[in-house]
């Protein structure tokens, strides 16, 4: 099985970190191809950089998505997730999406802990878009961005563990998601300090991508997730322009 | 990895069918142990038999759940799902739950097709309990029960394909779940007649159980899904009485 | 008029307490028959004992429900309430259900105070199943279980009054339900300490059962609350097996 | 026990009809006092006459509400229901409110059948205000108004029975409310033609008023349903002006 | 363009204040006619005075609404708003309605700050009736009523600014509405103390009325906001009686 | 007052059409500056072109947004609306947003009629994101896209009028929005064929932009719509890169 991991921001070290961590998680026989965004913010933690990252994710898919079995959109918050599901020939799953679906299976309500204070309302809106707001106990952001945390994870561990515990004791979370590309791999290091199941965003994303690839469920031929009629465009990267013109 | 599949009704041939079909789906290295309910209706398609099946599922877990890595509650509608999540030491996933979570990852809204006319409102209530009603396009039941379909699958294939297509054309479903123990394995036989992704309930359940086992997310130590204080009981099967007394 | 009160846990002293208290409430001419569960936990304050109590409630109805005019399911949280409504020939009302409907008529939002810390999320889910979450201000549990309170009510009165007042001052409740078999009769003893209408769960349940019996509204002949087609079973109590086979 | 029935429209024959029908329903020892609105539309079937009827209901309560045990607001749609609950010293229940609460206890979703085409959206909004929209299957209005039906009930019986059946077969209602002052007493005449429980609005209202009077739950001393600080007014009926000035 | 401003309470000085403030806001060429209620409470801050004010608003429209282009219902909370929309020949907008729609366009969630403690639940219910509860962050009432504030605005400014800031810091509001006839014009005096957009209720109302008048969208000819069939009445002001009889 | 109209697709003739139509609508003294997207699909009627158009809208604002009083995002569906509200120094309103807010003020539920079949679910999701789903009666798409309709409006008029009427008669709409850049100006030509208020998307957008500019409500200094901390980027247009780096 071949997976394409798209990091829709433009920081290659973040992509490299995720490739390293994902390597520990993949089933035997799964190959991972990873790409970063060609353009956009160094990291995504505002509505504007998020909107740009959506375009970058589509651009990356158009260039690299030809021969994979599933796509993992590896930016917690999942820019252009539904557009990727529409345009891709394969199953696509986002990191926040996979985390929420996995956490939901733990029972009760889940909380999300992530880096970057602007993510709070954006993630609540994302969960609402998924129709899962009833399952969301809280979104707890910590001040350092995911990029900050990736650079100095040791300094963030205590802060993150405190945030996770607060979700449980103050907001009644039955499970906690540790979300964000920059936090990949940290869940296992603090899970003993959190009294409910702790979900690692990258692990949920990669394994859910494998799960979806195995379902063999096929591409919709009608409706909102079928391919669209061809449309001309201007000023786009060639692979994306071609994908739009062919679809 | 060891999975326990609990069929909470009392029809062993249904359990055998699921074991056969699940055999085709398991990852290398996954072992499956399967048990049927000790008591209750031959099949579950009313609120009363559903309530009884919840007790039977707990009874079966108490007797057989000691040394497995995850539990698959394999009756579509998932009797006592939350009670099992509370009492079990391992992750537990129900067939309807796993199907809904998998279908959600296809994007848009999913429909459910299953056998037995009384399941309609019961499944709508189940999806509401999961907090996922916004993602549900429709529940389409066909008259034969799951047990009827398991006995004569050939006769049901056309009926089921028609029901799936109606979910798409009349109710706008972006994916369809073929749910029910008795329908295990039928999705692959009609998927070419359904223009959107078709989810097989048993496959979703077994693979989601594997996914959850791999997360290693651990048992809640506090909250609604932690083990409960010990409670005395009367008139229960010994393993269940012991499990309640120990918990 | 004849009412059947089902206490679906297995503590006869709790049933006796409710019979004593209900005696003060009944209209002239109403007779009360009361039964306890044949099997299950001594008290119900977990998801597992709740699921078992649902089976026990059906079992009790099957044995004792033949010639009554209405059924009062007298365990706050109402295990198998909808299954009883399906299978019974008479109107069935649960203690939590009757309390919520009565409190709703006070205007605004109601709170629930009950014993046993695990009831919090379970009652929130129950109210959601009733479609009345918008009317629920809060569920406040106190640490002693209903069984503890029934044994030593004097010790609990202050604790319960404090909990009721907190629902008003901190959560804006316009009325408060004092719920739980073990709390039967306590509302009148603390109502002068609570500045909003205080609803006694047992009183609401018994009087709502009388109200429903008087409507003479009849059993549904179609739909989700009509009797179901007969189904064979194994391992059940004889009256329940017969009821399923006849229905 | 003394009940005050307020008919907030200005048609005395409608009040008389309700007194006649209510006489068949009251418990031994219950006395009924009934009043019509002093001003307003002859019947209420628009948003404007509804708003005026709310004022008229308060005016009637102020004049006649002194020494009763509960108030029945007997216009289906319940103008100024929450204002009456605020201002009255006793429990107040509306005809639509009582009907919805009673129907809810039948399980599943209820439908409403009433006369006057403009009531459709108004009743959906009323049910939403009660926070019970999830329990509402449908509102089916018939063209004749309640006043028309009261004048010639025989002509309307077939129409009403057809409307009730349509709620069941087309909209999946598990019970049906026959609402409206002008329809008082008709439910018993068509209930054998409707395959689910049929709720008579007036019966639900009067009996729920008795139920609430018996709870002895008391008037809120704080919050949105407590009495308000005194307020001066101009141009109102004297009793209402006095009630506002005293409250 | 001619606007009719209806102040449905009976305090002429409040109407005069609004006329003064509105004069600063109107587009060139807009004329404003303003009327107070003929009957009802001196101010509206309870459910009872609110219900009466609804009737008074209709009465005022009937007398003064003949030749205007739009109607501004200038009591924050908008008594009988939907009835006015039904009965009026022109677009009608309420002060709370216009404020909520304007605040919504700021993005995110809005809070409401107003005078009079009883308005809290009433405004939450109003926002729910508008179907906009998801956009509402909080309703913060201050103890002085709108009438008190209108008499001594200097004393209230600090209190109001504190309340607005609390909505932002404690409840996450992205904008704040300063609502209430008595608070007209105060927003500009405290906006520099509030770190998010501050909406003045009267300004939103008057300008939204101009906006609606300009759309020229016309009166509904069918449905719930079309004129109703004529209805006889008793005891009403002559213009209102005539309007009902003609409609 | 100066408005910036952003057409985030790349068809200049569509922008020109909107400038022509907007000219008829503006208040005296309002100047309109209009820009098209620099890159992206010729028209937007899929999730992918929508995501790209969001980036293009930000890019256009960064280049042209310096000295205007409000921004009108003139693509019905409003790509990157919330990101523009975040990044802009002025009030921003989208065409679909303004239309929904204006239609809401008509009372009851509104429907949307637009061109391009893929818009149906996308617009339902947009309305949900606005938290206004309860007010939405239906989205009716017609097969020709907005671009097709703009080219040959005469051919589409009958189709559009039929679609509007269907929204009223089949889905109970109390008002209808004619949405889409390509449909600008058509509402006045069919409004006499639609029995409820008909809202022109462009008119609602431009006038709401004027309304917001007049409120002078100011930019949020905290929260989700305040400017964000500066972030570096790669591969973006210079003005947008600078705006992100400065913000």
Structural class of chain A: alpha/beta
Percentage of residues in strands of chain A:
15-25%
Mean pLDDT of chain A: 96
Radius of gyration of chain A, taken over Cα atoms and rounded to an integer in Å: 17 Å
Strand order across the biggest sheet of chain A? Answer: 2-1-4-5
The chain pair with the largest interface is: A-B, 51 and 51 residues
Q: How does the major sheet of chain A shape up?
A: 4 strands, parallel
In CATH terms, what is the architecture of the largest domain in chain A?
3-Layer(aba) Sandwich
Helix content of chain A: 40-55%
In terms of quaternary structure, what is this?
homohexamer
Q: What's the CATH first level of the largest domain in chain A?
A: Alpha Beta
- Number of alpha- plus pi-helical segments of chain A: 10
Number of domains of chain A: 2
Remind me, CATH topology of the largest domain in chain A? Rossmann fold
Instruction: Give the termini separation of chain A.
Output: 24 Å
The number of E-state strands of chain A comes to 10
Overall outline of chain A: globular
Order of helical and strand elements of chain A: EHEEHEHEHEHEHHEHEHEH
* Low-confidence segments of chain A: none
How would you describe the overall organization of this protein?
The structure is a homohexamer of 247-residue chains. Chain A is of the alpha/beta class. Chain A is globular and about 50 Å long. In chain A, 45% of the residues lie in helices and 17% in strands. Chain A folds into two domains: 2-95 and 205-246, Rossmann fold; 98-200, Rossmann fold, CATH 3.40.50.12500. In chain A, α5 (119-129) links the parallel β6 and β7. The mean pLDDT of chain A is 96. The relative contact order of chain A is 0.16. Chains in contact: A-B, A-F, B-C, C-D, D-E, E-F. Chains C and D meet through α3, α4, β9 and α9 of C and α3, α4, β9 and α9 of D.
